[in-house]
Every structure is written in C-alpha cells, then in structure tokens.
Specification:
Helix content: 25-40%
Number of domains: 3
CATH class of the largest domain: Mainly Beta
Shape: elongated
CATH topology of the largest domain: outer membrane lipoprotein receptor (LolB), chain A
CATH superfamily of the largest domain: Lipoprotein localisation LolA/LolB/LppX
Distance between the termini: 79 Å
Strand content: 25-35%
Largest sheet: 10 strands, antiparallel
Number of helices: 12
Radius of gyration: 43 Å
Number of strands: 21
CATH architecture of the largest domain: Clam
Length: 485
C-alpha cells in the first residue's frame, strides 16, 4: 500500500526529528493505524540508519571547515535537518540566494524608476500653464450679463429686468392679466415720436407703483410682482415684496435714451387710442414686422411713461405681459439710502464691433448673426474668460455667452433637454447651456422659444474636451522645452 500523499513530508520530518512534540505524537498515532504510512516510515528510518552507519569518504580540509563555520556564524552548531524549517534572518553569516539577489536588484531598479517618474511628473505639473477655468454654474453670470444689456435697450422696463435677473417668481398660473386692446384703428402717424417720448420719460418723471410681470413658460406663465420707484436723478429702485426674497431691493441707474430710431427703421410703427391703465389714460403703439404685431406698449398720455407692455411670438401668442397695477406719478419719498446696483459686473468691458476679427483669431466664435438677429454688442471679461455677444432688433434680445472651461455639473435651476441636447432653465428667464469642445455656451433671451431653438442649432455642439492630469503634465514639459502647442 502507498502512504497518504499529504503525509509524505511529515513522515520525513518525523524521521529527521524536525517535528514538535504534539505533531510527532499525532503522526505516530496515524502511522499505527495506516499500513502505507507505516511502511514509508520504516523505509525512511532504514535509510537514515544506513547513512549514519556508513563510514565517511574523507574529512574536509581545515580551511574549508573554518570557512563553512564562519558562514554559518552562531548557528553553526544547529543540525542541518532543521534549517529548511527555520526562516533565514538577515545578518552576519547569512549568504543571500541568487533569487534573493535578483529580487533586491529588481526592487532597487523599480524604486529608482519610481523616484525619477515622480520627479518628472512634479516638474511637469509645476511648470504647466494655469489650467482651464472650471465653470461649475454659468447661470448667475448669464443672468447678470443679460440684465446688463437689457438696461441699455430702448423702453427698458426695470420691473421685468429685475424679475429676470434675480429669478424672482411668486407663482405660476395659466391666467393672463393685462389691459384691453386698442379701441379703434391704428395709424402710422406720430408713432415714432410717441416712443421717443416714452424712452426719455424716466429722465424727467418721478413715479411709484407696483408692476405685474408675466412670462410665458410652456402652457402657463411665471408671475412676479415688483415695486418700482423712479427717481430721475438716481434711477429706478426695484423691490421684491413676495414670498421669495421679500424686501430685497436693487437700483437700475439712469439710462441714456436712444435707438428708438433704429426700431422704427426695422419695424412698422402704428398708434391709436388706448384704454385706461392703472387709473391713467393711455395711447397704444404697436411694432409690426412682416405684417404681424411683435410688440405693444400702453403709454401714459400726460408723461409718456410706459404703463404696460407686451411681446408676441410668431403665432401671435403673448410671451411677455408686464405693467402697472397701480401707479402714482409725482415726487416720491425715497426710503432710506439707495440700494446696491442690480448689475455690478465692473470687470466686463464693452468692445468695439471692429474687434470681432481679432477675437475670432483668438479662438472665440463671435458670429455676426444668430437666429436672424444682427450682432449689436460685444462684451468681454478677462477674469471670467468670457466673451458675451448680444444680438437683437430693439424689441427682443438674444445673448450668447462663451466661456472657456468645463461644465462639471447640471447648472442650478436647469434640467437636461434630450431633444435639444442642452440644459434648459425652468425659471422666468429663458436660458440654455451646454458644453462644446473646451467652451461652455449659454443662450439667454426674451425672444420667443422658436428664436432660442434656432440659435441653439446654429451654435457649435462639438464633443466635450476635458483636460486630464496627464495633459497638464505634458503641457508643462512642452512649456519647459519651448514646444508650446
């Protein structure tokens, strides 16, 4: 019979005396009951006895013996049969094996390599140019910039600008409030003069009242109430009395009137008698394009102040309806000191349109026309690494903000629109944002949704490019070696 395969090594150790007391007793008990192991044990013991009784072939030289003893050191007296089971400890008298020597060489080479690589990485990282600005949320900047350009538009309504800038909303409703239409036919004579008077009215008229702002959103309207106080010497104070942001005030500074002539050059202007609005008699002026109305204003007969305004989309639906529910015209008692300005982005500079080719050569898009709207303004902020191009026709405004950076998360107040492939805002201001290459594009507009969707399609939608750590290290070494790309 053959011995148990798992016992072969233990049997050899038992014969050599290399097992502990307990292990030896347990194995001897097994050998008594196992014939195969007992035969193996007897054979091993017979071999051991023969080797012990064999005469030596010759004694080793004294020199060799001394050499072996010096190598073994303090463990020279220990039986050789025990050495395979005692781990070798580094120290005097222990010779490393060839495998150990190879392992130490490999480990040394690996360590040196790691140190060299770490040094190269560190130098490249430190020498790299400033990394791309990470733009986490373009929404607040886009709202501020949009409010800034709206303040320069003819017949700008401070209540509408304030509601859009702070995303102030009381409720959403499907019911639209506004004054009735004209009571008679509209004619073209005198319409331009009426709008020019209305545009200049805030410069010499004090007023105070509450406006209702209604902006179309899907099947309903976002609604906000805004208190306004007009001071010809300071500007217009807007205050939000509703549940959200209650008591917050901001100031829109005095604006230089103008550009109504451009409006009359691109639109047909008509006028006629209007109804009473907020207790005051009015005159209606409409702007038509391609035979349909795009905007309507109810103007105070005595002062020219805009009492109400409406904007329309291509289907004739109202997209904005805002105006006074109550108003008092005359001297206004200011409540304390003036509030901070609504828009305070002093680092943004308005550029001359002749610089557009230079901006393009620097990698900015800067289209001359978007969604059939002409470019009217270019603004640039070196700190935000942003170029803001503004398009419009003096009735609607479309902003395109291009920022160099990475859109790392869903912007606050936005949701993903799978049909357009962009993030879409849910608030009073129509905004769309997306990553294209190394840029973030944000479109903001008070134009109808169809205009915004045309702009989205015309602007770039390249695969996003995200800067990795390895690309920064490579850029650093390119910089050191003078190989800028």
């Amino acid at each position: 019979m053959r011995p148990c395969p798992s016992r072969r090594r233990e049997l050899a150790e038992l014969v050599d005396g290399a097992l502990g007391v307990r292990e030896a007793e347990r194995l001897r008990a097994h050998v008594v009951g196992c014939e195969g192991c007992r035969r193996e044990f007897d054979a091993l013991r017979h071999v051991r006895d023969r080797l012990r009784g064999a005469p030596p072939d010759g004694a080793a030289s004294r020199e060799l013996t001394d050499r072996l003893v010096s190598i073994a050191g303090s463990e020279a007296a220990e039986p050789l049969y025990a050495r395979p089971f005692v781990p070798a400890l580094p120290g005097p008298g222990v010779l490393p094996s060839r495998r150990q020597q190879t392992r130490r060489v490999v480990l040394g080479v690996f360590t040196v390599t790691c140190v060299v690589i770490a040094g190269l990485v560190g130098v490249g990282w430190a020498a790299a140019p400033t990394p791309e600005t990470v733009v986490i949320d373009p929404g607040p900047i886009a709202r501020d910039e949009f409010a800034a350009v709206l303040t320069e538009r003819p017949l700008a309504n401070p209540a509408v600008i304030g509601a859009r800038a702070v995303e102030f909303t009381d409720a959403k409703t499907g019911q639209l409030h506004g004054p009735p239409d004209a009571g008679g036919p509209l004619l073209g004579n005198g319409a331009r003069e009426l709008l020019e008077r209305a545009d200049a009215a805030p410069l010499d008229t004090s007023f105070a009242g509450r406006q209702l702002v209604q902006v179309r959103h899907l099947a309903g309207f976002w609604v906000a109430e805004v208190d306004v106080e007009g001071h010809p010497e300071h500007g217009t104070r807007v205050t939000f009395p509703g549940r959200i942001g209650a008591g917050r005030s901001a100031l829109l500074p005095v604006r230089t009137p103008g550009r109504v002539g451009a409006l009359s050059a691109t639109h047909q202007l008509l006028t006629g008698p209007g109804p009473e609005v907020a207790g005051r008699d009015s005159t209606i002026v409409e702007a038509h394009r391609a035979g349909r109305p795009v905007a309507r204003w109810w103007l105070d007969i005595d002062t020219g102040l805009v009492l109400w305004q409406q904007l329309f989309d291509d289907d004739g639906r109202i997209t904005l309806s805002a105006g006074f529910r109550s108003v008092a015209i005359g001297p206004v008692d200011s409540h304390g000191s003036l509030p901070p300005r609504l828009v305070r982005r002093g680092d943004v500079a308005t550029l001359d349109l002749v610089l557009i080719d230079g901006l393009r050569s620097q990698g900015w898009l800067c289209s001359r026309k978007v969604a059939d709207l002409e470019l009217v303004t270019i603004r640039r902020s070196p700190h935000d690494r942003m170029v803001h191009t503004v398009y419009g026709n003096d009735v609607v405004t479309l902003s395109v903000l291009e920022q160099k950076g990475t859109l790392t998360d869903t912007p606050s107040g936005f949701v993903w629109d799978p049909e357009q492939g962009v993030y879409r805002s849910l608030g009073m201001t129509t905004m769309y944002s997306w990553q294209s290459g190394e840029s973030i594009f944000t479109v903001v507009t008070d134009a109808p949704t169809a205009v915004a969707e045309r702009a989205i399609k015309e602007l770039p939608h390249s695969e996003p490019v995200f800067r990795s750590h390895s690309s920064r290290i490579l850029a650093g070494w390119n910089h050191l070696l003078g190989e800028e790309r």
